[in-house]
Amino acid sequence: MRIIILGDIVGTPGRQAVTQAIPVLREQYSPDLIIANAENASNGTGLTPDLYKKLVKAGVDAFTLGDHVYKKNHIIPTLQRESNIIRPANLSHKALGNRYMKLSVGSPEDNLPNIYVFTVLGRIFMSLPASDPFECCDQLIDDIKRHDPTAIIITEVHAEATSEKVALGWYLNGRVSCVFGTHTHTPTADARILPPTLGDGSISDHPSPSGGTAYITDLGMCGPTGSVLGRRVDRVLTYMTTNMPAPFDVATVSPVTSGIVLDLNPNTRLATSIERIELQADTQQPPFTAH
Ligand SMILES: [Fe+2]
Ligand SMILES: [Fe+2]
């Protein structure tokens, strides 16, 4: 089974880059599923129902969000109605939207395991107060496996601190098929299959030949790289050098589509490969040139 996961889609340039990239990715990798984080799709903050529909049409199969989940609050009915979009799981139980999603791949006769995806928010340097992500993961994994023992589980850690993401990767090692990070909008060079955690809690020196939990600290964003995390360089520099307010408009320069290609063995539910991908958009071609 092959799954492509794309990082935070930032503004119109991010959405256009993803729209342009998906046919290329489908041709090149033949993924069973394309998942994307869309928390910055609406002008850099939040997601609207209209943009959700546009991204579905562009070929995104399922959506995660992050700390900006409710910034455009008219997305809430979509969160409640649709089965392919989730809010972060470790918010209040009263927060609206699904805590995890169940995704099916292949035809029924293929009898492939279901894929479950959930997002936890980090607590270090994050403004949205969320509950313990470690405890939340334990609870959700138990719930999912009780209902579906052959579940493939993919966990997104939407967090600022690298240490918290790495720690959650090891915490979930061997229990889920993939732990990937989002939120920092800058890709990291640490995509790998984690070596097994041994019975005494130590880490094996050697990766298992049969695969394991795939891990990456941050997917990077789908958005303009001539920017500060997707925002206009001049505006951010004005703010940072003068302390005077400046509107952080979404940048337009040099958009990319960034993420991972993940291969999973449906029998072992282990990841056998994780490869980072980054596609430079051609802004002289549609949808950038179409009006
Ligand atoms: Fe983001
Ligand atoms: Fe975020």
What does this structure look like?
The chain has 291 residues and is of the alpha/beta class. The protein has one domain (2-280): Purple Acid Phosphatase, chain A, domain 2. Helices cover 24% and strands 22% of the residues. The longest helix has 19 residues, at 11-29. The model has no long low-confidence stretch (mean pLDDT 97). Residues 8, 39-40, 66, 183, 185 line the site of one fe (ii) ion.
Structure described in brief:
The protein is 24% helix and 22% strand. The protein is α/β, with parallel strands linked by helices.
Set down the secondary structure blueprint.
Blueprint: E1 2-6, H1 11-29, E2 33-37, H2 49-58, E3 62-64, H3 76-81, E4 100-103, E5 115-121, H4 133-147, E6 152-158, H5 162-171, E7 178-182, E8 192-193, E9 214-216, E10 223-224, H6 233-242, E11 255-264, E12 271-280
Parallel strand pairs: 1-2, 2-3, 5-6, 6-7, 7-9
Antiparallel strand pairs: 1-11, 4-5, 8-9, 10-11, 11-12
